[in-house]
Write a structure and sequence with these properties.
Strand content: 5-15%
Number of helices: 6
Order of helices and strands: EEEHEHHHHEEEHE
CATH class: Alpha Beta
Helix content: 25-40%
Strand order of the largest sheet: 1-7-6-3-4-2
Number of strands: 8
Oligomer: single chain
Length: 249
C-alpha cells in the first residue's frame, strides 16, 4: 500500500466524542510528549516478531503497546475485541500487540510479558492471544496478579505446563520485552496503552484507553482516505468503555 494516500498529506482523526470531534494534520513530530493525532515513526508489522489478530496484510494496523498489569489496558482489550468484531471480516483492519511493561509501577508486568511470549512459542499466535486475554480476565491489575498463576493459565489454555515453566524460568524473552519497551518510548509512548494507527510506515498516535466510538471514528477517518474505501461492519454488543488517560510511569 502506498502510504502517500494518507500521510504525510493530511490526517484527519475524529474521536474523543465526549469532547467533540477533533481534527489533526500530521506533518512532523519528535519522540517525547505525544498528543493524540500526532504523526510518529514506528516499526512496521513484522510477522517474525509481532502478534496479530486479523489479516496480516490489512491496510490499517492498530498497534498497541500494552502492560498486562495496567487497568486501562484491561479495559482497552475489551474495546479492541469489539473493534475486530466490527472490522475483522473486511480484512482491512488488524490489531498488533506489543509489550510496554511499566516496571516502575508494575514490577510483575515484565515477567508476565515474557510469559505471553512463552505461550506464543509453545502454541503459536492463537495461544498468545488466549494467554493475554486470560491474564486480563484474571488479574485485578495494578500489580495484583500472583505470578504463580502464570503456569496455571498456560495449562488452562492447553499448553504444556512443564515446557512453559522451563521457557519462563530461562528468561529467554526478557530482551524482546525490553526492546519493545524501548520501541514504545522511541515512538513517543509515555503511558499505557499507547496506540498507533498505522498505514505503511506512517503512524498516528492515540494515548489512553480510547472508548469504542472514538476508536471507530479514528479508524474510519483513516480508512476513508484510502482507495476503494468501504467502511462498515457489524456493531458489536456491549456499551463502550469510558475514555481514560494512559497509565504513566
Amino acid at each position: 500500500m502506498n502510504s502517500n494516500y494518507i500521510l504525510p498529506i493530511t490526517i484527519v482523526v475524529a474521536g474523543l466524542l465526549i469532547a467533540g470531534a477533533v481534527f489533526f494534520v500530521g506533518k512532523s513530530s519528535t519522540p517525547g510528549a505525544t498528543q493524540d493525532g500526532a504523526k510518529v515513526t514506528a516499526r512496521v508489522y513484522d510477522p517474525a516478531i509481532d502478534h496479530i489478530l486479523g489479516n496480516p496484510n490489512a491496510e490499517v494496523k492498530v498497534v498497541e503497546y500494552m502492560d498486562l498489569e495496567c487497568l486501562h489496558c484491561k479495559i482497552f482489550e475489551v474495546t479492541m475485541h469489539q473493534i475486530m468484531d466490527y472490522y475483522g471480516d473486511s480484512g482491512r483492519v488488524a490489531w498488533v500487540q506489543r509489550h510496554f511493561p511499566l516496571a516502575q509501577i508494575h514490577s510483575k508486568a515484565p515477567k508476565e510479558a515474557e510469559a505471553a511470549e512463552c505461550a506464543a512459542e509453545l502454541g503459536g499466535n492463537a495461544a498468545y492471544w488466549k494467554f493475554v486475554d486470560t491474564v486480563f480476565e484474571v488479574t485485578p491489575s495494578n500489580n495484583g496478579l500472583d505470578l504463580a498463576q502464570l503456569p496455571q493459565i498456560a495449562g488452562q489454555i492447553g499448553l504444556d505446563v512443564g515446557a512453559f515453566k522451563t521457557c519462563l524460568d530461562s528468561g529467554k524473552y526478557a530482551k524482546k520485552v525490553t526492546d519493545q519497551y524501548k520501541e514504545a518510548i522511541d515512538a513517543g509512548g509515555q503511558g499505557t496503552p499507547y496506540v498507533l494507527i498505522m498505514v505503511g510506515t506512517d503512524a498516528v498516535a492515540l494515548a489512553g484507553a480510547q472508548p469504542y466510538d472514538s476508536m471507530r471514528a479514528a479508524i474510519d477517518a483513516v480508512l476513508a482516505q484510502l482507495p476503494d474505501s468501504n467502511v462498515g461492519g457489524t456493531v458489536p454488543t456491549g456499551s463502550p468503555q469510558p475514555t481514560s488517560s494512559p497509565e504513566v510511569q
